[in-house]
């Protein structure tokens, strides 16, 4: 049974007040709150076990190593992967950059194409811009329609050439040919909530470019729905641990073993080597090859416990809960839109979207709106949400964004809607 009130009791931070009001945390898209079990596991590690992994034969070091190995197994099972395919990173940005440095630099050449979408977080756009510029490859970007869904066919095509980077923007069918070597796309938009149909797109691309590699930025997917990497038909999947109830400083890259085994390391140093001689070195196999230096041991252990927590809730229940919340929020917000109070962005069909709600209060700057909501204890984000090309394509400099997770309630949405009504009143003279 998914009992949101019981779940809320597991998150100590939800007891706090903000400006004298109960906290209404609607920014889990940026980072989620952490349950007591995760906080305790990390605290317990530092109090009772703290020792570096892989480097000692003494009991505490062996225990630490086993705990990290255990967390890797939990994450692997959570997404239907093999343990040696799970690489721990600091965050999703590092996971995406790892693919760019370790795979991209050796496999993208002049004239090749990298295909992304306008929905991307900067972390899945900027690395590819830089690689394309360096390699004289072309960056192609699937555009969005007025609802924020990816354009599959038709429409205009645009070409930009600036600072040594060639960018083509248009619908998927116009952008795919045999030159596409990498398709790197978000599984869920962090701004509009859009859930692109990645499977249909991947199959369409593979028909024209069978050797294409596929990278899914699943940062807003893995925390919110059941994900099985095999079913995604991807080669790499990147996500953050800290958005799925785990600690900050944790991220994950999953990659197919046969591809990872051929990739060069990302960082060099301790723990990632095979043999080191004064004249040169060889590399360990995956995942160690990509995990140089001391990892965030406590964080990884905490992430394992976060996975336990989500497994216990059941990811299908998590998705159902969020669908209910977003449906409820969209209905309420649509009324405000009819009244001319707000403008909503993103798909309206809840089957095609996750729990991110982007809006603006008419004639109020989003930063002002977010600050006024904060004065009532509501934590929402405002700005471009690290997706400037997406946000500005809607003709606005910024948006307010509320994101929902396992601990949010309909009552909180009622409160948000009530307080949005207050926002314009602040500016009345
Ligand atoms: C879709 C998406 N990709 C990538 C990132 C970057 O994640 P991190 O901050 O863990 O690097 C985020 C963070 O908001 C995101 O929402």
TrEMBL record:
Cited CDD domains: SufS_like
Domain Aminotransferase class V: from-to ranges: 24-416
GO MF terms, alphabetically ordered: cysteine desulfurase activity; pyridoxal phosphate binding
Pfam families associated with the record: Aminotran_5
Catalytic reaction annotation: (sulfur carrier)-H + L-cysteine = (sulfur carrier)-SH + L-alanine
SUPFAM superfamilies referenced in this protein's UniProt entry, alphabetically: PLP-dependent transferases
One BP term from GO: cysteine metabolic process
UniProt keyword Acetylation, yes or no: no
Keyword annotations: Pyridoxal phosphate, Transferase
InterPro entries recorded: Aminotrans_V_dom, Cys_dSase_SufS, PyrdxlP-dep_Trfase, PyrdxlP-dep_Trfase_major, PyrdxlP-dep_Trfase_small
NCBIfam families: sufS
Assigned protein family: Belongs to the class-V pyridoxal-phosphate-dependent aminotransferase family. Csd subfamily.
Protein name: cysteine desulfurase
Phylogenetic classification of the source organism: Bacteria, Candidatus Collieribacteriota
């Amino acid at each position: 049974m998914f009992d949101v009130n019981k779940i809320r009791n597991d998150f100590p931070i939800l007891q706090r007040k903000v400006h004298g009001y109960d906290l209404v945390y609607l920014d889990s898209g940026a980072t989620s709150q952490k349950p007591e079990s995760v906080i305790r596991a990390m605290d317990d590690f530092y109090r009772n076990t703290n020792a570096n992994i892989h480097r000692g034969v003494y009991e505490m070091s062996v225990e630490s190593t086993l705990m990290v190995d255990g967390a890797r197994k939990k994450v692997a099972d959570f997404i239907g992967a093999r343990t040696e395919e799970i690489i721990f990173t600091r965050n999703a940005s590092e996971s995406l950059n790892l693919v760019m440095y370790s795979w991209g630099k050796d496999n993208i050449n002049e004239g090749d194409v990298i295909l992304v979408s306008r929905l991307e977080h900067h972390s899945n756009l900027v690395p590819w811009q830089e690689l394309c510029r360096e390699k004289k490859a072309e960056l192609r970007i699937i555009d969005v329609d007025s609802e924020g869904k990816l354009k599959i066919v038709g429409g205009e095509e645009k070409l930009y050439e600036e600072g040594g980077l060639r960018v083509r923007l248009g619908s998927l069918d116009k952008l795919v040919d045999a030159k596409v070597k990498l398709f790197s796309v978000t599984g869920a938009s962090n701004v509009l909530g859009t859930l692109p149909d990645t499977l249909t797109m991947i199959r369409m691309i593979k028909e024209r470019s069978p050797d294409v590699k596929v990278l899914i930025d699943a940062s807003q997917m893995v925390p919110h729905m059941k994900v099985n990497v095999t079913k995604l038909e991807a080669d790499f999947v990147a996500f953050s641990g800290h958005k799925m109830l785990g600690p900050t400083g944790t991220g994950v890259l999953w990659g197919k073993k046969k591809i990872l085994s051929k990739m060069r390391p990302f960082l060099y140093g301790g723990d990632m080597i095979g043999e080191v001689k004064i004249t040169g070195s060889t590399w360990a196999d995956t995942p160690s090859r990509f995990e140089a230096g001391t990892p965030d041991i406590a964080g990884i252990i905490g992430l394992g416990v976060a996975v336990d927590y989500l497994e216990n809730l059941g990811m299908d229940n998590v998705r159902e809960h969020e669908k209910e919340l977003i449906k409820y929020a969209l209905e309420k917000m649509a009324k405000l839109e009819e009244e001319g109070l707000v403008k909503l962005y993103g798909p309206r069909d809840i089957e095609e979207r996750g729990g991110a709600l982007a809006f603006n209060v008419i004639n109020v700057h989003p930063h002002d709106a977010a600050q006024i909501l904060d004065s009532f204890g509501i934590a929402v984000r405002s700005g471009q949400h690290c997706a400037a090309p997406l946000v500005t394509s809607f003709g606005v400099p910024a948006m307010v964004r509320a994101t929902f997770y396992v601990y949010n309630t309909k009552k909180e949405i009622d409160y948000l809607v009530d307080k949005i009504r207050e926002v314009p009143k602040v500016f009345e003279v």
